[in-house]
Design brief:
Largest sheet: 10 strands, mixed
Number of domains: 2
CATH architecture of the largest domain: Alpha-Beta Complex
CATH class of the largest domain: Alpha Beta
Oligomer: single chain
Order of helices and strands: EHEHEHEEHEEEEEEHHEHHHEH
Distance between the termini: 37 Å
Radius of gyration: 20 Å
Length: 350
């Protein structure tokens, strides 16, 4: 098997027909198998998957007895792929629909550029296909992560401009090199949901691998902009877990004043948006997980390569619709960008 396509499903029944009908229409399944890891869905997901599998001999369903989250769910799929000798694994969100010619450019990059460990197609908004959902994700030096080029026109990313390196590729549609994962490890299951794709690709970059956008390949994502208090709190908890584990000590020290200021700003934001209690509760979760994070940090930093490229893609600004308050655009972004520019020179970051 050359490629395993992995889908982690949860209450996915409304999305399955769109995903599998477009896969069937636009994918050549020679040397490709599909595995769906279902996270104990209570709707009609398994029944629908059973019906789909009757016409798909290369579709395998792995029902779970609990919700394992995105991280562990994909790890279950990755283990399945590894046991069957897959060279590559392609993660697809359940609410993705693929388009004509979506897969060949991604596999071509992996075949011709052995330094690439992660690649994503251009992800477009399903409801507004002329707009971008992600053209590669951005990563702030304080750990904030967000979709790159979100809601920009698709004409701003032209296929003829070629493959480009990104801070990290979106987990919504993510092609991974399996032998690179054998060095970096799979997803961090403590993260459960959010930032797990970021953490994995930081570790890949620390080993010297590249992560890229392949704009010739395109998929549609039924993305929602709704953020609950629990989602914000998970994002915040996982942001801290990632930087505590993955940032080198010198970078952590250099970022400390900015991290303190950013934390105060997040607390104010949480209080205004009504999720302060969830934010405060996340500190307890971080403390509970800290011993494991410290142990993993030792291994991550020990394996860091002299050719690590993770620092080269960190930014000092946040440019995302909905986070365009003047306090961010006119104050925080200029100040933190200047601060990070100076810190990079001191740290001799790439």
């Amino acid at each position: 098997m050359k490629l395993a396509i992995i889908v982690v499903s949860y209450q996915a029944e409304p999305y399955l027909d769109g995903l599998f009908s477009t896969l069937q229409q636009h994918t050549d399944f020679d040397d490709i198998e599909i595995v769906v890891v279902d996270n104990a869905s209570s709707d009609a997901t398994l029944a629908r998957l059973d019906r789909i599998a009757q016409a798909w001999p290369n579709l395998h369903v792995l029902p779970q007895t609990r919700n394992t989250g995105f991280a562990e769910g994909n790890n279950i799929g990755l283990r399945w792929a590894r046991e069957r000798g897959a060279a590559f694994a392609l993660l697809l969100n359940q609410d993705i629909e693929v388009t004509a010619g979506w897969l060949k450019p991604l596999l071509s990059v992996m075949d011709t550029r052995p330094e690439v460990a992660a690649a994503q197609p251009l992800v477009m908004l399903h409801s507004e296909p002329q707009l971008i959902n992600s053209a590669g994700n951005q990563l702030h030096f304080c750990g904030f992560a967000y979709c790159g080029a979100y809601r920009q026109g698709i004409d701003s990313i032209r296929p003829e401009q070629g493959i480009r390196s990104v801070a990290y590729a979106s987990g919504a549609a993510l092609l991974l090199r399996m032998d690179a994962l054998s060095r970096a490890g799979d997803f961090d299951e403590k993260l459960f949901l959010y930032h797990e794709d970021c953490d994995l690709q930081i570790r890949l970059r620390q080993l010297g691998y590249d992560c890229v956008l392949v704009p010739e390949a395109r998929v549609l994502h039924k993305y929602t902009e709704q953020f609950s208090g629990r989602k914000y709190a998970l994002l915040e908890r996982n942001r801290w877990l990632v930087i505590l584990k993955d940032w080198p000590l010198a970078r952590l020290a250099a970022a400390a004043p900015a991290l303190a200021g950013a934390e105060l700003a997040v607390l104010l934001f949480a209080a205004r948006r009504g999720w302060l209690r969830a934010k405060l509760a996340s500190y307890g979760e971080i403390l509970r997980l800290l011993p494991a994070v410290v142990g993993e940090r030792r291994q991550v930093q020990k394996s860091r390569s002299p050719g690590a490229t993770d620092g080269a893609f960190l930014t000092g600004s946040i440019r995302f619709p909905g986070l365009d308050h003047p306090a961010i655009t006119r104050v925080a972004n200029p100040v933190l960008s200047a601060y990070w520019s100076f810190a990079r020179k001191v740290l001799r970051e790439p």
